[in-house]
Design goal:
CATH architecture of the largest domain: Roll
Number of helices: 10
CATH superfamily of the largest domain: CBS-domain
Helix content: 25-40%
CATH topology of the largest domain: CBS-domain
Order of helices and strands: HHHEEHEEHHEHEEHEEHHEEE
CATH class of the largest domain: Alpha Beta
Number of domains: 2
Strand content: 15-25%
Radius of gyration: 22 Å
Length: about 270
């Protein structure tokens, strides 16, 4: 066997050797030590560590019309969506947005769209994997099959979760933002009583900006996401409301299976009279 890593993993492992001269990295980029740590964690991780839970999967029923599919794609930032019959425990494949765009173009050019059979015609294969599968094995499976979306199934064939190639890449390089991702302010005032906050905001910065202390006596936390995680004892679900010991509350606006992204912080009742 040749020395060193090859393929996809080697691409990241050898990233430092690519440039002839050192460059100043972006402020939020990973250094080599952090990258090496993420690679080591990735090699030991399993599908269950990164999958989106079944309750949070955005999917489409196979009889969905083109009009409704277009509306869904306008609302959800996904290029691939699982397709199912009746329930998500009976999946039949996935639909890719570029096939939907091609269908729209065909209809605009005078072609007739067979709405009832739309997803039957557009559906592509999807992978089915167990939650215990290693991410490195799934990565190889996605590379060889050229299918970049996998449903996570249990021993009875039920759907437990969903994992994409992007989910796995983000485990190594961090969150990937594309040109369609909107720049959102770290802190936004929502009336007199609340703030919408990026979960990465540090508690000290939040205190300085708002005068509201969200520190927890029994936990060492540095960010608002850390506060929410400590209060829930896990990664809380989107829409979950967490009472804070100071009398206020945190509402989860956006979160996935691995981390919290944005939340609403509401003042304690005794502090709402300004």
């Amino acid at each position: 066997m040749a020395e060193g890593k090859t393929g996809f993993m080697g691409l990241f492992a050898r990233r430092a050797a690519v440039a002839d001269e050192p460059e100043t990295p972006p402020e939020d980029s990973l250094n080599d030590k952090e990258m090496s740590l993420r690679l080591a964690q990735f090699e030991n991780a399993r599908v269950e560590d990164v999958m989106i839970p079944g309750a949070e999967i955005v999917a489409v029923e196979i009889s969905t019309s083109l009009e409704d599919l277009i509306k869904l794609y306008a609302e959800e930032p996904h290029s691939r969506l699982p397709i199912y019959r009746e329930t998500l425990d009976d999946p039949v494949g996935m639909v890719h947005i570029k096939d939907v765009v091609a269908e729209i173009s065909r209809a605009q050019n005078g072609g007739e769209a067979e709405s009832a059979l739309l997803l039957e015609r557009l559906r592509r294969d999807i992978l089915y994997v167990p939650a215990s599968m290693r991410l490195t094995d799934l990565l190889v499976k996605m590379q060889t099959s050229r299918i970049h979306l996998a449903l996570v199934v249990d021993e009875y064939g039920g759907t437990d979760g969903l994992v994409s190639l992007e989910d796995m890449v983000e485990e190594i390089v961090g969150d990937i933002e594309d040109e369609h991702d909107e720049d959102v302010a770290m802190l936004v005032r929502r009336g007199r009583l609340a703030w919408e906050v990026d979960a990465r905001m540090e508690t000290d910065d939040f205190l300085e900006e708002t005068g509201l202390d969200l520190g927890l006596e029994d936990h060492e936390v540095d960010t608002l996401g850390g506060v929410a995680f400590a209060l829930a004892g896990r990664v809380p679900l989107r829409g979950e409301v967490l009472p804070h010991p100071n009398g206020g509350e945190l509402e989860i606006l956006d979160a996935d299976a691995r981390r919290i992204h944005r939340l609403i912080v509401r003042k304690p009742a005794q502090e709402t009279h300004e």
